[in-house]
Amino acid sequence: MSTVTARPGPKRELLTLAIFALAILTMPIWLAPIGAGYPDILQKFAIFGIFAIGFNILFGFAGYLSFGHAAFLGAGSYAAVWAFKLFSLNAVFAIVFAIAVAGIFSLVIGYVSLRRSGIYFSILTLAFAQMSYNLAYSVLTPITNGETGLQLSGGDPRVLDRALFVTTSRLQPPDLFGIALQGWSGFYFCAVLLVIAFYVSMRIRHSAFGLTLLAIKSNQRRMGFTGFSAKPYLLTAFVISGMYAGLAGALLATTDPLAGADRMQWTASGEVVLMTILGGVGTLLGPVIGAALIKYLEQIFSSFNEALLHRTFDFLPGAADDVVTAIFAPFVGEGWQLTLGLMFMAIVIFLPGGIMEGVRRIAGASRRQRTGSSAAAREVGRRIPAE
Amino acid sequence: MDALILQVLNGLDKGGAYALIALGLTLIFGTLGVVNFAHGALFMLGAFCSVSFAKLLTISERVRDESVTFFEAYKEVPYLEIWWGETGKSIVDWAVPLSLLLTVPVMLLVGVAMERGLIRFFYKRSHAEQILVTFGLAIVLQEIVKSFFGANPIPLAAPAALSGSADIGSLVGLHGISYPLWRMIYFVFSLGVIGAVFAFLQLTTFGMVVRAGMADRETVGLLGINIGRRFTVVFGIAAVVAGLAGSMYTPILSPNYHLGMDFLVLSFVVVVVGGMGSLGGAVVAGFLLGILQSFASMTQVKAIIPGIDQIIIYLVAVVILLALPRGLMGRRGVMEA
C-alpha cells in the first residue's frame, strides 16, 4: 500500500520539520476558533500524538499489530512517578528514567512476542498487557498502589533534589529546572517533545532501517530469502515504539502526577490503534492527526449533555427540537464510547487508509481533472479491491 | 482430596462458558476465516436476552398488600401471577431456563444479520482489519446495551428448585462435597450444546458440506454447492451458541454491559491454546483453562506464587504459543506463522 520512495534530501526533511513544528507550536492560535485553544486539551493532543507516532513505527512501518501497547504507557507513567518520588521533581530526569524502564520492559515482551507473527503476535501482546494490568491491580500493589493509583506525597525522599539543595515544598508539581509545567508551559514542553518525536520517526522512515521495516511488512518471507534476519529489526522497532509509549506515559505523569493501572487496560491499547488507523497507518503525519482528532472529539462529545443539546438545537421549532435532541442524546456525554465505536467501524469499512488516504484521494482527483486520464489509471490500479 | 475435587468442579462451569465461546469463535474462523472480536459481545447479548425475558415476565401491577394491616402498603405483582396464579408464579421463577426460547431466535437473527450486513465484506481483508472492525462493533453493541440497561450488573436468580446446593460427592462415593446445583446444570448444559454442535457437523448432510467447506472451500464451490449460504448459517449457529452460553450464565454471574469484553480476551486465549481452527481443541482448552484458573485461585497455591490467579491463563497462553506453535490440537497449515 505504502509506496517505497527514495530518501528525500535533507533540505526537504528540514522543510517538513519546520512546517510541522510551526503548525504544532501555533496550535493555540489556529485551534482556538473550534474551542480547543486551551492548554489541557492541546497537551493531550501532543502526548497522544507521541504515543501514536511510536505505535505507528511498529504497526505502520513493520506491519505488526500490537494489542498491548498501553502496558508501556502505563509502565512509563509508573516509572516517572517513582522518579519524582525517589530522585527529583525535575521532569527531565523522570522522562529519561521512564523511557529507559519502558525500553527494558518492551525489550523483554518484544523478545518473546516477536517469536510469532500475525494474529498470534497480537494475542501474545494482549496477553502480556492483560497480565501487567492484572498484576498492577493485585500483587504489585506495593509498587503501583493498586486502585488508588501512585501519587506524590510529602514524605518522598527525592534524594537528588536534597543532594543538590533544591528545595521542594511538600506537595509541589513536577517542574523543569524551576519552570512549573502547568498550563501553557506544560503544553509547550509536550509540543517540543512531539516535534522531536516526529523528527525521529521521519528519520527512521527514511533511513535504511525504516526501508527494511517496510520491506518486512510487504513480504517477510522474501526478506528471509535475501539473507535478512527480520527479528533484530523487528525487535528494534518494537523497543523504539515501546520507548515512545514510555515517553508519552512520563508526560502524562508530568502534567498530572498520578499513575493508575487503568492506563494499561486493553481498551487503552485499542484506542491507540484507532488513532493510528484514523489518521493513516504508515504515514508520518497521520497518527498525530488521528490522536488529536480522537481526543478532540472525546472532549466535545463527552462534555455535551441533554440540556446542552436542547440549547444547541433551540433554533428549531418546538417539536423538532425535542426529536433532534432525542436522536443525538445517546451519542453524547456517557454515550461517547458509542460514537467512538461507530467511527471506528466507519473508518475501517470505508477508509482503511485513514484521513491521509482521504486527503490523497481528493488531491489525486483534483490532479486527475487537470492532467487527464493517465493519473486516473494509476489511481485505479492502486485501489484496494472492495471484496 | 475433597478440596481437589471441589476445585475441579469450580472450574467446570467457567470452563463450560469458555468452551462454548471458543467453539463459536473457532467455527467462524474455520469456516469464514474471520477473526471475530465481537464474539464476547454476542455472549453478553445472550445474557441480556435473559434479562429482557425476565423483565418481560415480571411486568407487574401495583396491588394492595393484604398481609400488612396497619397501613396501606402496596406491592408489585406480575400479571402472570394475577392471571394464572401458581402456574404464573412458577413461570416467573423459571425465567432463566425459559428465556432460551427468546435467546435462540434472537441470537440466530443477530448472527445472520451480522454476517450479511458486515462480516461478509471482510472475507478478503486482512486479519488486522477484521479484528479492528469487529472490535468497533463490540464497542457499539455494548454501548447500546448500556444505554438500555444501565451500567450496573443485573442479578437474575436460578429457579428456586435448582438454586440450592447438592451433595455431589455422594454420587461418586465421597461424602461432604456439596456444590451449587445450578453450576452443575450449567456444566451439563454446556456439554449438551457442545454435543449438539458436533452431532450437527458430523451426522447431518449440511454439517458434512460445512466440514468439506472448512477443508477446501474452493473445491466445494466448484461442485456447485452454495457454500456461502451454509457459512452464513454457521455464523448464526456460532452466535446462538455464544448466546446460550451467556443466557444460562446469568445466575452465576450478574451480567453487565462489559461482560463480553471480559470473556472475549480469555476466549481468544482459549482458542489459541486449543489450536486455531480445531473445534475439539477449543473445547478441551476451554475446560482445561477453567479448571487451571480455579486451581490457581486456591489459597494454598496463592501462598506459594502470589497473584498467580490473575495471570495464570495468560501465562499458559504464552507458554503454549511459544512451545507448541499450533496449540494443543491445531491442524497443520491453519494460521501457522
Task: Tell me about this structure.
- The complex is a heterodimer of chains A (387) and B (337).
- Chain A is globular, with a radius of gyration of 22 Å.
- In chain A, the strands form two sheets. Chain A has a two-stranded antiparallel sheet with strand order 1-4. In chain A, strands 2-3 form a two-stranded antiparallel sheet.
- In chain A, 70% of the residues lie in helices and 2% in strands.
- In chain A, β2 (175-176) and β3 form a beta hairpin.
- With 387 residues, chain A is an all-alpha fold.
- In chain A, α3 (39-61) runs antiparallel to α12.
- Chain B is mainly alpha-helical and 337 residues long.
- Chain B has one domain.
- Helix content of chain B is 68%, strand content 5%.
- Chain B has helices at residues 2-32, 39-57, 79-84, 86-93, 95-98, 100-117, 127-149, 181-203, 205-215, 217-222, 227-249, 259-274, 279-296, 299-304, 308-323, and strands at residues 60-64, 74-78, 165-167, 178-180.
- Chain B is globular and about 75 Å long.
- Chain B starts with a helix and ends in a 14-residue tail after the last helix.
- The chains are: A mainly alpha (387), B mainly alpha (337).
Mean of the pLDDT scores of chain B?
A: 83
Strand order of the largest sheet of chain A: 1-4
Total number of helices of chain A:
19
Q: Any low-confidence stretches of chain B, pLDDT <50, length ≥5?
A: none
Shape of chain A: globular
In which range does the helix fraction of chain A lie?
over 70%
Number of strands of chain B: 4
Please state how the strands of the largest beta sheet of chain B are arranged side by side.
1-2
**Spatial shape of chain B:** globular
Structural class of chain A: mainly alpha
- What is the subunit organization of this protein? heterodimer
